[in-house]
């Protein structure tokens, strides 16, 4: 999402730097952006379509196959499989690598829906399904994403997000350190709730080092205290439906109770409350620290409740919803969703189907039970990203076909029956379409292809269009044939319905900002009956449940065994999930996976820096190398994901700890034991 300048000589990427004229990233680019050249020339970059041909001593041998032949073969297989087992025997997993390939993502999704299959899985359900869930239940539409009003708000609350490293979760915060500094320089206050003293916490006004999974209690307290004011209550009652239920639901969150749950002192809690009262309106954002916890839905709900109670939601000086430059959500007609899920997958009927997809938690069982027989993976590495690695591997190996579209070899391509070498980021023209509404302004950026696609790499859209044609249906938009289509023609289709024209967007070399935050469109067009449904029954029930569970399992009350820890997720600066593990920007070090432990715990248990430790959960174990840190709270262990050498997915499960409302797997706040490997 940062503007970059790429220096090219022939087909060689020589250098990448931030574009100082880019209105949002202003010359900044992170190490991942600067590593795009190295990624483009990756030693295991995929160059041509391949088919699994033989096994040899644990490895698989792939043979190149002409694309036409591959397409015909796959079309035959899809046709016969669907004839025998129905449309739902073919499925798709779409993830991070496709989020930035606008034409590819759209064609892949269209292909699946033309097949008539319900077997759609995306990274949303292993990342943050609480966000669309709460948006749908409270606001009437799952696509509403809170965005920081960095220009007008005076208080930013961050829960379980570390934008200095991640550059934001569902907020594209380019240039994060400078953004935060500017915000504070103009009188803004930043408060970070995180069990780790993060790089973002270090740049903030106040760091609350709370117990993992206890964010909902802190938010419950603030909402409760604010609603004690009768004037506010009466005012809020005009704007919402269900206020009485909210008031009852947050009643347990007294200062004493919340101090016990969060591990924060009562004076600290009062400081936060004072800051909220002083600011009036505020922006509050969550990230994966809370969205992957078993209290995710309660936390997200109370965060929305806080926005609404302070009249911050969709209001200047509070937070906003980006209608998107390309998507233009503010010019559509909306019908509020009831929030009822559709029927779940056959092998796990207790799991919900929401937002037009099944939860990833059901992917393995759908394959094992024979429902799902052909899987397309589009820009994802599910072998490292999904829980219970061995089960995922076994399930994938049993598929009739695993078709993986990627740019490099991965743990997932290694299990594929067919590999499609996709054209990469620098080899295609593109627009930030899927993340359009995650930006800090109503903005877009067109980028032309920097180099031509080399070898036999193919655009993801073209592959699906060809496969669709072979199966007898159109994947591309009406009026665009496969013969005439190219990247730009397809992007024009999107720009035609955007806030501007293709000509204007294309000629804006450094990206285009239409406006900063805009307010009010959600009130005007989206909210059911013009009011927030502030206390949906499902969430009220969930909160009561979480309270019971959390009190039972709270660290302070657990039988105190010295080797017990709570696992918390974290991102690393130079990797992007499993990407950039083995290539980096010129001169930059590679990331090394490690388990981050506090000095105190290491001293207590006799662990030294670089020791090998065994980390065990209820579901599995892994061996990790320790990294001693003053950042992480005592009692917590921080583990990144996306590594097969130190694979955190071995510790997580698709069977227990699965959220009933969303199917989200618990990946944050997991109890583990740690011991030294002799
Ligand atoms: N460099 C880099 N950037 C990335 C990625 C990457 O892999 N590397 N991945 C991208 C992706 S896919 C995503 S989804 C985003 C994620 O973006 P973020 O959500 O900002 O992810 P993190 O940086 O891991 O921050 C999560 C924080 O939550 C804290 N935490 C853990 N448990 C709890 C808890 O119970 N309560 C609270 N309050 N905090 C908790 C952790 O200590 C950590 O600091 O980042 C994106 N950006
Ligand atoms: N335990 C645990 N599990 C987690 C997480 C955690 O914190 N803890 N985080 C979760 C989160 S937030 C996420 S988003 C998921 C990530 O899950 P995934 O998105 O499945 O994982 P990535 O490693 O990002 O895989 C992206 C793939 O896309 C490929 N790619 C890159 N560019 C392109 C392109 O232009 N075209 C194509 N076709 N492919 C491309 C890359 O080579 C890579 O293999 O993992 C989740 N899993
Ligand atoms: Mo993610």
TrEMBL record:
<comment type="similarity">
    <text>Belongs to the prokaryotic molybdopterin-containing oxidoreductase family.</text>
</comment>
<dbReference type="Pfam" id="PF01568">
    <property type="entry name" value="Molydop_binding"/>
</dbReference>
<keyword id="KW-0411">Iron-sulfur</keyword>
<feature type="region of interest" description="Disordered">
    <location>
        <begin position="39"/>
        <end position="59"/>
    </location>
</feature>
<dbReference type="Pfam" id="PF00384">
    <property type="entry name" value="Molybdopterin"/>
</dbReference>
<protein>
    <submittedName>
        <fullName>Unannotated protein</fullName>
    </submittedName>
</protein>
<dbReference type="InterPro" id="IPR006963">
    <property type="entry name" value="Mopterin_OxRdtase_4Fe-4S_dom"/>
</dbReference>
<feature type="compositionally biased region" description="Basic and acidic residues">
    <location>
        <begin position="44"/>
        <end position="54"/>
    </location>
</feature>
<keyword id="KW-0408">Iron</keyword>
<feature type="domain" description="4Fe-4S Mo/W bis-MGD-type">
    <location>
        <begin position="1"/>
        <end position="44"/>
    </location>
</feature>
<dbReference type="GO" id="GO:0046872">
    <property type="term" value="F:metal ion binding"/>
</dbReference>
<keyword id="KW-0479">Metal-binding</keyword>
<dbReference type="GO" id="GO:0043546">
    <property type="term" value="F:molybdopterin cofactor binding"/>
</dbReference>
<dbReference type="InterPro" id="IPR006656">
    <property type="entry name" value="Mopterin_OxRdtase"/>
</dbReference>
<dbReference type="Pfam" id="PF04879">
    <property type="entry name" value="Molybdop_Fe4S4"/>
</dbReference>
<dbReference type="InterPro" id="IPR009010">
    <property type="entry name" value="Asp_de-COase-like_dom_sf"/>
</dbReference>
<dbReference type="InterPro" id="IPR050612">
    <property type="entry name" value="Prok_Mopterin_Oxidored"/>
</dbReference>
<dbReference type="GO" id="GO:0051536">
    <property type="term" value="F:iron-sulfur cluster binding"/>
</dbReference>
<dbReference type="InterPro" id="IPR006657">
    <property type="entry name" value="MoPterin_dinucl-bd_dom"/>
</dbReference>
<dbReference type="GO" id="GO:0016491">
    <property type="term" value="F:oxidoreductase activity"/>
</dbReference>
């Amino acid at each position: 999402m940062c503007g970059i300048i790429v220096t090219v000589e022939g087909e060689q990427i020589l250098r990448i730097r931030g574009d100082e004229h880019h209105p949002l990233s202003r010359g900044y680019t992170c190490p991942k952006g600067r590593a795009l050249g190295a990624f483009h020339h990756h030693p295991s970059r995929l160059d041509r379509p391949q088919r699994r041909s033989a096994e040899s001593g644990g490895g698989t041998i792939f043979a190149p196959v002409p694309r036409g032949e591959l397409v015909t073969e796959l079309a035959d297989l899809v046709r016969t499989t669907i004839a025998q087992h129905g449309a739902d025997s073919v499925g798709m997993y779409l993830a991070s690598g496709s989020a930035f390939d606008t034409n590819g993502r759209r064609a892949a999704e269209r292909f699946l829906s033309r097949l008539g299959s319900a077997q759609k899985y995306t990274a949303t359900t292993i990342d943050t399904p609480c966000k669309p869930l709460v948006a749908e239940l409270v606001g009437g539409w799952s696509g509403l994403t809170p965005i920081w009003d960095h220009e007008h708000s005076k208080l930013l609350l961050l829960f379980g997000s570390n934008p200095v490293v991640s550059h934001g979760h569902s907020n594209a915060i380019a240039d994060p350190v400078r953004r935060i500094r500017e915000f504070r320089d103009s009188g803004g206050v930043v408060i970070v709730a995180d069990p780790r003293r993060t790089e973002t916490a270090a740049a903030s006004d106040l760091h609350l080092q709370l117990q993992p999974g206890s964010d909902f209690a802190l938010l419950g307290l603030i909402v409760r205290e604010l609603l004690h004011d009768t004037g506010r209550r009466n005012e809020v009652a005009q704007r919402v439906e269900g206020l009485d239920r909210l008031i009852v639901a947050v009643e347990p969150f007294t200062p004493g109770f919340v101090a016990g749950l969060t591990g924060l002192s009562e004076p600290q809690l009062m400081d936060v409350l004072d800051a909220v009262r002083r600011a009036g309106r505020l922006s509050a954002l969550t990230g994966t620290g809370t969205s992957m916890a078993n209290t995710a839905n309660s936390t997200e709900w109370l965060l929305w409740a806080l926005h609404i109670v302070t009249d911050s939601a969709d209001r200047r000086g509070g937070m906003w919803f980006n209608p998107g430059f390309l998507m233009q959500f503010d010019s559509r007609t909306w019908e509020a969703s009831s929030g009822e899920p559709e029927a779940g997958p056959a092998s796990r009927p207790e799991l919900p189907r929401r937002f037009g997809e099944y939860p990833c938690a059901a992917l393995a069982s759908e394959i094992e039970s024979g429902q799902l027989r052909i899987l397309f993976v589009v820009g994802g590495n599910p072998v490292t990203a999904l829980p219970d690695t061995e089960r995922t591997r076994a399930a994938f190996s049993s598929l009739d076909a695993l078709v993986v579209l990627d740019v490099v070899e991965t743990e997932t391509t290694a299990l594929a029956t067919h590999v499609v070498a996709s054209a990469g980021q620098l080899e295609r023209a593109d627009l930030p379409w899927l993340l359009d509404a995650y930006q800090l302004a109503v903005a877009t950026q067109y980028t032309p292809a920097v180099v031509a696609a080399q070898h036999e790499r193919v655009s993801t859209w073209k592959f699906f269009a060809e496969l669709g044609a072979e199966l007898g249906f159109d994947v591309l938009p009406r009026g665009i044939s496969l013969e005439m289509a190219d990247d730009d023609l397809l992007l024009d289709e999107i720009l035609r319905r955007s806030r501007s024209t293709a000509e204007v967007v294309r000629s804006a070399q450094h990206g285009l900002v239409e406006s900063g935050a805009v307010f009010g469109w959600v009130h005007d067009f989206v909210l059911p009956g013009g009011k927030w449904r502030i206390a949906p029954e499902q969430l009220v029930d969930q909160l009561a449940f979480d309270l019971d569970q959390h009190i039972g399992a709270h660290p302070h009350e657990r039988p105190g065994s010295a080797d017990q820890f709570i696992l918390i997720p974290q991102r690393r600066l130079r990797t992007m999930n499993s990407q950039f593990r083995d290539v980096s920007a010129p001169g930059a070090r590679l990331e090394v996976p490690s388990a981050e432990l506090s000095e105190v715990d290491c001293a207590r248990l006799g662990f030294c820096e670089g020791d090998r430790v065994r980390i065990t959960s209820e579901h599995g174990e892994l061996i990790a190398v320790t990294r001693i840190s003053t950042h992480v709270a005592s009692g917590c262990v921080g583990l990144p994901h996306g590594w097969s050498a130190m694979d955190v997915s071995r510790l997580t499960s698709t069977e227990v700890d699965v959220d009933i409302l969303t199917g989200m797997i618990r990946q944050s706040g997991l109890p583990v034991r740690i011991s030294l490997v002799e």
